Amino acid sequence: MSMQNSIDFTASPARVLLFMTHERPADVPGDEQPLACLLPLGTASFAERTMDSCALAGVRQLDVVVSDSPEALRAILQDGAPWGIQINWHHAKESASPYTVLRAMALQPNQRLVIGHGHQWVASRIVRELMQAPGVALRMGSELAWTGWFSADASSVQALGPHADYQWLDARVRNMVGARCVLAAAGEQAQCLCATDLLAAQQHALDGTQESAIPASWRRTAWGAASPEALVHADAKIQGPVLIGAGSVVEAGAELGPGTVLARDVFVAAGACVRNSVVLSNTYVGGQITLESALAQGHCVQNLKWSVRTVLSPDDAVMAVLRSHADNCTPWTSRATAALLALALSPLLMPALLWQWAVNSTALWRSVPVVRSRVPGQDRLQWVTVRLPQSGRTIDRWVAQFGALLDIVQGRRCWFGLRPRSESEWIALGRDWQDLFGRSAIGLFHAPAWREGQQNLDSESHAAADAFMAVQSTSVGRVRILHSLAWRSR
Description:
- By secondary structure, the chain is α/β, with parallel strands linked by helices.
- It folds into 3 domains: 177 residues, Spore Coat Polysaccharide Biosynthesis Protein SpsA, Chain A, CATH 3.90.550; 107 residues, UDP N-Acetylglucosamine Acyltransferase, domain 1, CATH 2.160.10; 114 residues, no CATH class.
- Helices cover 29% and strands 25% of the residues.
- The protein is built from 13 helices and 32 strands.
- The strands form 8 sheets. Strands 12-13-16-19-22-25-26-27 form an 8-stranded mixed β-sheet. A 7-stranded mixed β-sheet has the order 5-4-1-6-9-8-10, sandwiched between helices. The protein has a 5-stranded mixed β-sheet with strand order 14-17-20-23-28, with helices on one face.
- α1 crosses α4 and α8 runs antiparallel to α9.
- The protein is elongated, with a radius of gyration of 27 Å.
């Protein structure tokens, strides 16, 4: 395959094609995101950061080739509207050799094609130069290496063999005859071909030198930046640079940085220590864990310094996958158990119920409508009525606990779940937390917060504790919650 600079490319504008088909590297732990382009590059995924570069380069129409997990890509890229780009979707049957889709496209022979890969980010300058003239984008290091981006005329690109894979394309592109080299500086490219690449790619995103590395909506601090939907306790020990993604929680006493990136929905418990590491989405890091030069997802840790993978037992609740419940319904087993317990406790609680009725001359408890979830795709809320104490007195709280048993019987609560919230408390959570909490039931027992009873920390600490309950609820964790509640009631 060759490139001729004498070809007239003015007949039609350059057409940009992004291949988002590369599978995640085998040495990156976890299996929640099967595509490499969905892995994090600082504050967003490689796919989103690549869309940023295309938008800044002036791209207004984009062809995206997908194979596996197209739904996951559509969920984050939508129709391209957040970037002002119209996306044309193409499906490749084989993720290993996706370039055969080029033969099915109605391409003009002299039209320039800019071809890139979603798991290999380049800055907008590189995209712009490839749009203006044919060339190959190379990165500088110990030796020149291909960045995964090049531009050529359509006739030469369509000549690719039907079984061409990424390695074959890499070899052919770097040996193009007459190709112009576009050199990418260190802060103008990043890739995730392996676990080491993924960790190294975070460096320029962490120091903010990459364009669009930190969104304007993020909270900038002395140690780095955090999403507005993240909760970071003031007593957490953080040494920058550190980036903390949406929905993540960092407890008091947790230690982070430098060189740490927390993806979406990561919970770092008090006592945990994370340095020069990437913690992938939906991961709970317990207080007994120290991560250094590592990648972690769920209960799987890849140590890059020693090239060792460790899989911890989920039952230890030290490292765990944070998974939201499929729905917020009360299981029939929970309802039956609550019914039997309420029936057994009725004779014991009857004197207290009668006493409260006689003294207060009011109902035994308050029936309060609280928010259960948000209607998907709408701003309308779903409500459920639960029984709450009349006051903070001990007798009222115990009576209300009996009422909560009846809530479980009626399917309004679960045994373990979230705290009841009013509409104003729900709205204050933010949309990401609403999505997380909306998939979990209201509970009779709640995870203990950082500092129960301190008014200025209640909202933040309760939200953090509920986030833990929403995504990490093992039998061991539930026993610990009951022990904590019993200890506090002494």
